Amino acid sequence: MNFEGDIIQRQISAILSSWSMKSELIETTAEAMVYSDLAGIDSHGISLLTLYEEKMLAGKLQLQAEPRIVRENAVTALIDAGAGLGHPASVMAARLAADKASANGLGAVGVTNSHHFGAAGYYAKMISDRRLLGLVSCNSRMVCVPPTGSSTRIFGTNPIAFSAPAHKNPPFLLDMATSTVAANKIKAYAYQGKPLPAGWVLDENGEPVCDSKLGREYVWHKDKGGLSPLGGTAEMRSHKGYGLAMMMQLLGSTLSGGSFPAMDGPSGRLAKRDNIGHFFLAIDPKCFRPEGEFENDLDGMIDFLHAQTPINPGKPVLVPGDPEIHAREERSKNGVPLAAALIEDIRKICERSGARFLLR
Questions:
Q1: What is the per-residue pLDDT for 19?
Q2: CATH code for the part of the protein at 1-64+325-360
Q3: Residue boundaries of the structural domains of the chain
Q4: 78 DSSP β-pair partners
Q5: Per-residue pLDDT tens for 283-325?
Q6: Is-same-fold flag (1-64+325-360; 73-180+228-307)?
Q7: Deepest of 32, 264, 311, 316, by most Cβ within 10 A of its Cβ?
């Protein structure tokens, strides 16, 4: 079934409210989550409510927590998220990094003691909407990615996002996991009963798992195998994805005092708090070039790439950010498709929490 973004946002808000989250934090979180659903990032929108409920019931998620600045100077800051959801702390951090960059050329803000924050690109775009370059990274609590050459799970999906403003074109927006695919993408495929492309998930012997339900077991419940690093296999140079995953761990979490979940026991389950870390960097291009020149050059680059002859005439050459723009246009017109299994999960959450069920 398809639902308007407004209904999905109201459903998210109703559930968060039933969990006693503060109203101003609900608005920030629901807006960030529905952004993902409208942009076609089904793994990072309303489907995450099942994970958030699990964390809340386990006592690891404090929905009433308000983020606060604990260290700051002219160009840097550190925010403590108070073990709350990552969206409010990350919106605060992206705005603060942009403010510092607008005033001083650069702004770098770390977040510690946080949780899942949705799509990294949402925050990078917040920064580029201020006519700045934005870089966002974080680590992931769920240990599901073995390093190249091992079947032992060490890293999470550890995403990186980068956005830059143009003049006439939408901003360049790269948002990617350092694993071959995001973990919740496997859940989305399992909800829909779709087979997994070979190489997304590997078993304990390094062999591809294509059954999406079995793949979900490997990603969430088994201690060996899981998502492959970007590249898929050693032969396809997965050591590059492995290196990027460690880089995002250091920049997104270790720098701000966040956790390295693999050292907390099997799948990171033994820690008393998740302590995910995030990192936000904003750069003012006017510090390097006369005003407008960077944006003009980026426009020229985007136009040049769009003009290249495609291999398939029906599939023009895109630049990062185009798929999300096209998805938003289509879903704003026709609604966001939600699988029946996901709708049922949301209905059960509403029953348990007392929230009104709106996805009828």
A1: 97
A2: 1.10.1530.10
A3: 1-64+325-360, 73-180+228-307
A4: 71, 110
A5: 999 999 999 999 999 999 999 999 999 999 999 999 999 999 9
A6: no
A7: 32
Q: Residue for token digits 């992931």?
A: 140
Region 105-116: mean pLDDT is 97
pLDDT at 187: 82
Q: Which two tokens stand for residue 57?
A: 């019931």
- Name beta bridge partners: 149: none
**Identity of the amino acid at 348:** K
Q: Which of 250, 232, 211, 269 is nearest to 145 (CA)?
A: 232
Q: At 273, is the pLDDT very low, low, confident or very high (cuts 50, 70, 90)?
A: confident
**DSSP letters spanning 227-247:** EPBTTSSTTTTTHHHHHHHHH
**What does CATH list as the number for 73-180+228-307?**
3.30.1370.60
Contact 129, 152 (CB under 8 A): no
Angle at 51 between CA 21 and CA 212, to 5 degrees: 155
Amino acid at the residue 113? N
Tell me: pLDDT of 5 over 60: yes
pTM: 0.92
Distance, CA of 119 to CA of 116 (rounded, Å): 9
For residue 301, the number of C-alpha atoms closer than 13 Å in the C-beta half-sphere is 14
Nearest CA among 208, 203, 145 for reference residue 177? 145
199 Rama sector, left if φ>0, alpha if ψ -120 to 50, beta otherwise: left
For tokens 């694993």, what's the residue?
A: 179
* Cα→Cα distances 97→11, 135, 291, 336, Å: 31, 10, 20, 32
Tell me how crowded residue 203 is: count the other CB atoms within 10 A of its CB. Answer: 16
Q: What angle do CA 145, 184, 159 make, to 5 degrees?
A: 60
Query: pLDDT band at residue 188, thresholds of 50, 70 and 90?
Result: confident
Number of other residues whose CB lies within 10 A of the CB of residue 38:
22
**360: burial class by Cβ within 10 Å (0-12, 13-18, 19+)?**
exposed
pLDDT tens digit sequence for 195-220: 999 889 999 998 899 999 999 999 98
Confidence grade of residue 234 (pLDDT, cut at 50, 70, 90)? confident
Answer yes or no: are the C-beta atoms of 18 and 353 closer than 8 Å.
yes
Angle at 359 between CA 355 and CA 360, to 5 degrees: 115
